[in-house]
Amino acid sequence: EGKGKRRNPLHDFKKTGELMLIKINKTLEVKTKLLNTTEQCAKRCSRNKGLSFTCKAFAYDRVTKRCHWLSFNSLTNGVRKKQDHAFDLYEKKEYVRNCIIGKGADYKGTISVTKSGIQCQAWNSMIPHEH
């Protein structure tokens, strides 16, 4: 990080163009607001600022400049994908990533078996191996 340079908040998100997520499960939460840029949406999602839920993704409506913060992502049960030319979907990489970085303490992906098919040990378990 250079002096005077700010980190782009979009770096933490995976972008899928022309896609919106539709919630089938009514308990999933969404909050919307007019914002001028995707960077502003990303910053608020990353900080969970003004949100009553953990933001896992946001969709930006390029036509109305409206940000839709989502408590879910494309891998969540009770969600379907919808092709929509007005929207770009941005999902937090930490929730859609299928690989472990470092020791994996921050891993929030969906993979829970090893390459050979063995069920992974739960993080809160000391059996069969200690951490």
Report on the structure:
InterPro entries: Kringle, Kringle-like, Kringle_sf, Pan_app, Serine_protease_kringle. The protein has 131 residues and is mainly β. The chain has a domain at 9-95: Hepatocyte Growth Factor (3-Layer(bba) Sandwich), CATH 3.50.4. 11% of the residues lie in helices and 31% in strands. It has helices spanning 38-47, 93-96; strands at 13-23, 30-34, 57-61, 66-70, 79-92. A five-stranded antiparallel β-sheet has the order 1-5-3-4-2.
Number of strands: 5
Distance between the termini: 33 Å
CATH architecture label of the domain at 9-95: 3-Layer(bba) Sandwich
Could you say which structural class the secondary elements and strand pairing correspond to? mainly beta
- DSSP summary: helix tally: 2
Helical coverage, percent range = 10-25%
CATH top level class name of the domain at 9-95: Alpha Beta
CATH fold annotation of the domain at 9-95: Hepatocyte Growth Factor
Report the uncertain regions: none
Largest sheet: 5 strands, antiparallel
Order of helices and strands: EEHEEEH
Radius of gyration of CA atoms, rounded to a whole number: 17 Å
Rounded average pLDDT: 88
> What's the shape?
globular
Tell me the name of the CATH homologous superfamily of the domain at 9-95: Hepatocyte Growth Factor
Strand content is 25-35%
Spatial strand sequence of the major β-sheet: 1-5-3-4-2
GO molecular function, one term: endopeptidase activity
Keywords: Disulfide bond, Kringle
Domain Apple: 8-94
Protein name: Hepatocyte growth factor
